[in-house]
Amino acid sequence: MGHSLATRRVLLAGVGTLLAAPSLAQGDWPQRPVRIVVGFPAGGTTDILGRLAAQILQEALGQSFIVENRPGAGSNIAAQAVLRAPADGYTLLLGSPGTNAINPHLYSNAGYDPLTDFMPISQIAEVPNLIAAHPSLGVHDAAGLIALAKQRRLSYGETSIGGSTHLAAELFRVMAEIQATHVPYRGSAPMMTDLLPGRIDFGTDNLPSILPHIRSGALVPIGVTSRARWPSAPEIPAIAETLPGYEVVAWFGLVAPRGTPPEVIARVNAALRAGLGKPEMVSRLAELGARPIPGTPEEYQARNAAEFARLGELIRRVGIRAD
């Protein structure tokens, strides 16, 4: 699917949903707690950002926003649960690269279409991934890791089959022209259980999850997966400095089931944009290795459509399947 076709498809779906949605008086919502469903276990980047979003919305809208972790099937379980919920604004999904663009390319039946079944509200933040090595390898950058991997077969881990960490690792392997043994994990914590003691040689995780281990000296940074060095960790080189054109960045935001009243979308969007613009929240995200990227629902739709096409092409190229 080309970028323009995908973009037209999701924009048309969004227009149709807005036209069909029931009206809602400005003061009617929220009158009870709102769930934000997260498709990964507690402690990872998606969970951290979901809780920050909940904090912003609770302070702005005067109602409880409760994070509910529903891990499994690369976040398909969470997405399907939100899709089945009433489109009344009381169940939202913390969208990740998997739910927004990747899973339909990985699973024979993901159970939803990210471009038509959900209404984007606003992006929250984007983060690069980080490739890190165990200190015992004796390498300190991408060039060193590539050279070692061409001398002997190394093992590498990632935190989600077909997720952005997996795609970042696979693109690195393909562009570096190396062979390595893939060890999949379900989440950051299980991978760290093996990477920190050196049972695997290197691994890829979202920057916020892995950065504390870099700063403690437990792991050696090989490079961030953004196109250039990341502002909150400028001392870490970008993989693209060694492999020009390399880039796999994760982006996160809130989405709602199709049919959610447009007034709800507008209220959540306005609250998120205001909260993410506060200096203390910008600083908090920077400490985590993330960068706020609030914007309009239309901007979020356009990014999802473009990445749906780009990452789908990469998945087909390296032959990843989750079932």
TrEMBL record:
Pfam families: TctC. The keyword Signal applies. InterPro entries: BUG, Bug_dom1. Residues 1-25 form the signal peptide. PANTHER family: BLR1237 PROTEIN, TRICARBOXYLATE-BINDING PROTEIN. Belongs to the UPF0065 (bug) family. This is Tripartite tricarboxylate transporter substrate binding protein. It comes from Sabulicella glaciei.
